[in-house]
Amino acid sequence: METIRGLLGKKTEEHPRLLTIFEQLNAEFREDIIKKRKHLASNPKFNAFIVALIFVNTIVIGVEVDNTRGSKLSDRLVYFILEFCFAIVFFFEMLIRINQLSWDYFVDPWNVFDYSLVVLSCSDIVVSVTKDDSESGGMRLASSLRIFRLLRVVRSIKGLKIVAGLWLIIQGILDSVRTVFWVACSCFIIIYCLAVALTTIAGHETSVREHWRLADVYVGSVSRSMITLLQVITLDSWTSDIARPLMGVAPITLGLLLIAIIVLTFGTLNILVAVMVERISCIAQDSKDTSSKVLERTENTLLHSMAEDFRKADKDNSGDLEFKEFRRMIRTKSMNSKLSLLGIRIDEAESLFELMDVDKSGTVTPQEFISGLQKVKGNAKGQDVVQLICFSQKQCLRATRFVERLHLLNDKADEIQKRLNKVGKSLSTELGYRKKAGERNDETWQRVAQKQQVLLRLDKDRQLDYPGLNGADGDLPGSYGI
């Protein structure tokens, strides 16, 4: 069973899942993508013109609000003409983008938002023209909503490095909308509960109304108490206008105000700020990771191109380059520019030849060349650092084992030395004994020599001196004369 699962897992990794019917029906060919990129709606100059026009329209709306007091069309004729021109331009812009994206135009929420604003602007113009001057000049709500067209600039500034910080903040706020909603709900519930308690304790007391003439304004009803609590949690003159008067007529309500400040001002609102900051930090980290991935893909493409140049420089098709061929290759204009992009100078590349030649064959293969460049360029990667640490730990462990073995060998050598010292002493004693034995042997030989000399002399004397026969002289027979 496990073998079958392993084979299925392997098959899934080698062959990714098929696209769904929806994805297949919405598939785009390369020609369609190129066509969209070349469309007028993707032209940077066109988008810059639209962004500038949005800024101008926003300024005109502000000037119109300040200088127009009447609601008749004749009172704002100049601004009406300008708005008509803006509406025509934005209407044609919408048609151009629909022509580019077709029905996919309504998939993007920003496009739906822009479409709604254009429809409202056109409706405002139609209503303004069809109604009499005595009546209201058009859909004033639609005119007020035109100012939100400025939000379209957010989509246009996305990806621009010059406003990267602004886009980061905007994206963090947009991603925190759901959290903001739930925080607002919790704040509303807490404010409502505290407002009910505040109205019950202070608002319904006759003595409070008698001693505080503004009691009905601040705590006369639940809705007024909620507004009062909003003023308290925003710390807007809450001590002089609310806290001190309530403390004089109903001291117990001071606890409610403190609870509102601690829970809402220092608690819930700070949590909201923390969530926004956390989202902005996550977006910044994601953006950094995305940039790192793009940079890594670019570097891989560059290294692949350098490997192709390496193969082209191999004229004899041997699969490797000698030092002379290597020097000639890195001094070409193409390779020089690519090495500069990696932050490697020519002299550094030449000195790396020996390091790249791992097998010490005097030549460098494409694999050794690319591997050497990956290790040299930029800062050390985490994997390289981990490998270096592991190698250092292994070498340190080996060195520790060698030291332990040396200590053991040293102990054994000391023991052998002690034994040798004992053997030396024994040999010295034996040599002394041998010396004495030699002296005795010499003395014995000397005595033997002396004895031999005595025997030789005696033998000589016996041979020379014979015993005389002196029997007549009265000597005993058998006696010798000396």
CATH architecture descriptor of the largest domain = Up-down Bundle
What is the CATH superfamily of the largest domain?
Voltage-gated potassium channels. Chain C
CATH topology of the largest domain: Four Helix Bundle (Hemerythrin (Met), subunit A)
Sketch the major β-sheet: 2 strands, antiparallel
The top-level CATH class of the largest domain is Mainly Alpha
Strand portion:
under 5%
Give average pLDDT, whole number.
Answer: 76
Spatial order of the strands in the main sheet? 1-2
Form type: elongated
Distance between the termini: 131 Å
* Class from helix and strand fractions: mainly alpha
Instruction: Report the C-alpha radius of gyration, rounded.
Output: 55 Å
Number of helices: 21
What order do the SSEs take from the amino end to the carboxyl end, as H and E? Answer: HHHHHHHHHHHHHHHEHHHHEHH
How helical, in percent, are the residues?
over 70%
GO molecular function: calcium ion binding; voltage-gated sodium channel activity
Membrane topology: Multi-pass membrane protein
Subcellular location: Membrane
InterPro entries: EF-hand-dom_pair (IPR011992), EF_Hand_1_Ca_BS (IPR018247), EF_hand_dom (IPR002048), Ion_trans_dom (IPR005821), VGCC_Ca_Na (IPR043203), Volt_channel_dom_sf (IPR027359)
